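Lecture 7 notes: from sequence to structure.
We start with the chain below.
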Amino acid sequence: MSSSESATRAAQHDSDTHRLHQLGYAQELARHMSGFSNFAVSFTIISILSGCLTLYGFGLNTGGPAVIVWGWPIVGLMTLFVGLAMAEVCSSFPTAGGLYYWSAKLAKKNSAAWSWFTGWFNFLGQVAVTAGIDFGAAFFLNAFLDLQFGFDARPWHTILLFGLILLLHGALNQFGVRVVALLNDISVWWHVAGVAIIVGVLTFVPDQHQSASFVFGEFVNNTGWQSSLYVALIGLLLAQYTLTGFDASAHMTEETRDASRAGPRGIVMSIVVSVVAGWILLIGLTFAIQSYDSAVGTATAVPPAQIFIDAVGDTGGKLLLLIAIGAQLFCGMASVTANSRMIFAFSRDGALPGSAFWHRINGRTRTPTNAIWLAAGGAFVLGLPYLWNATAYAAVTSIAVIGLYIAYVLPTFLRLRQGDSFERGPWHLGRWSRPIGIVAVIWVAFITVLFMLPTASPVEASNFNYTPLAVLVVLGFAGIWWLVSARHWFTGPKVQGSPEELAAAERELESLA
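Predicted C-alpha cells for the same chain:
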C-alpha cells in the first residue's frame, strides 16, 4: 500500500470513528472491513444457493413452477424498495445497533418504546434466519450423507447435523475472526461461480428439459387448499425468505471503512445481485426437472438433490449438491456473525436479560464472544420442534421473514413521519425517498399477515404453522417486560461517554489486543 493510500485510509478511519463518537459509541470493534467485504456479508446471508434451494420443495407444492419463477422478480422488486429505504437511514446512522438505534433516533415521541420493540423483532428475526440457514444446510448435508453413506434423513439425524453446523459456525466466529472475513469475501465468488456451474451443467448435460410453458406457466397445488390465489400468495415465501438478512451490512458498519456510504451500498447491491442471479438459478433448475413426482416425493427430503441426480446422474448430482452445501455453510457462518453484532449492540444498551454478559468483548480478537454463542444457541432451540412437526422448517423461515421485515420497516415508517426534518447522510434517495418508503411499509404489512397463515389443509398438529405462536411469545415477553420493568429504565441507545472518555476506552482496548 502506498503512503498516499495509507494516509487516505487513516483519514477515513478518523472520520468513521468521529461519526461513531457523535452517535455516542466508542470504536470497540476492529474497523478492518472494506466496502466489498460489507457487501459480501449481506450477499452471503441472502445466499441464493441456500434460500432458493432449501425452500424449493415448498415451492413445488405451493404454486409450482409458475409461482417459483414469477414470484421471484415480484418479491425481488418489493424487497429492493425495502432495502433502498433502509439504506438511506443506514447512511445517517452507521452503527452496529442498526434498526433499533434508527428507531430511537427517528421517533418523534416514545423513542425508547419504538427502539425496544424494533430491537426485539430484529433479535427474533436474526435468530430465526440463522436457524433457517443452518437448518437448510443440515437438510442438504443429510441428503448427501444419505446418498453417499446411507445416513438417512430421519428427524434426529437432521437435528444432530444442525447442532454440529451451529457449533462449527460459533467456533469459527469466536476463534477465526480474520478467517471469517476472508471466507466472506470468498463466499461471493463461490456463490457466483456456483450458480454458473449449476445452471451450466443443468442446461447442457441432461438429454431433455421441460418446456417453456411448463417452467413459466405450470401451476401446482398440493396444499389441500382450494383457492389458487391463496396458494400462490403463500408460495411467495420461497422468494421472501431468501431475500432476507441484508441488514447485516448495517450491523457491520462499525467494522467497515467509509461506513456511511459502504453500508448503504452493501444493502442495495446485495439485493440487486441476488435477485438477478437467483432468478437465473430458479429458471435453470426448473427447466432441468426430469420427473415432478420424483422431485416432490424424494427420499432424501431435498428436491433439488433429486433433480440434480435425475438430470446428470449420481456422481454429477452429488458434486452439484456439494457446491450448494458449501454456499449454505458460508451463509450460516455470516449469519452468526451479523446476529452476534446485533446482540452485542442491543446488550450494550441493556435491552437483553444478562446484557453485561452478552456485551462482553474478547480483548484479544475484539469480537463479542458471548453474543456469538447466544446467536448459535437460540437458533438451535428454534429448530428443535422439527423433531415433532414436519412443517417446522417452513415455520422457522416465516418467523425469520416476519421478525426481520417488521424490524426493517419500522425505521422507514418513522422516517416517513419525520418528513423534511430527517437529516440525510451522504447516501440518500432524494425526491424518491417518500414514495419508496410508502411502498416498503405497505408491502411489509401485507407479508406480515400472509406468512402467519396456515400452509396446509386440513390444519393438524403435524402441519400446524407455529409462526404466530413464536412471534406472540417473543412479542408478549418483550411487551410484558416493557410494561412491568423496562419502560422505567430503558431509554434507548446509551451514550457511552464524552469524546475524551470514548477515546480513553479505545486506547484501553488497544492495549489489551
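Points to note: Residues 64 and 167 are 35 Å apart (CA to CA). The longest strand covers residues 62-63.
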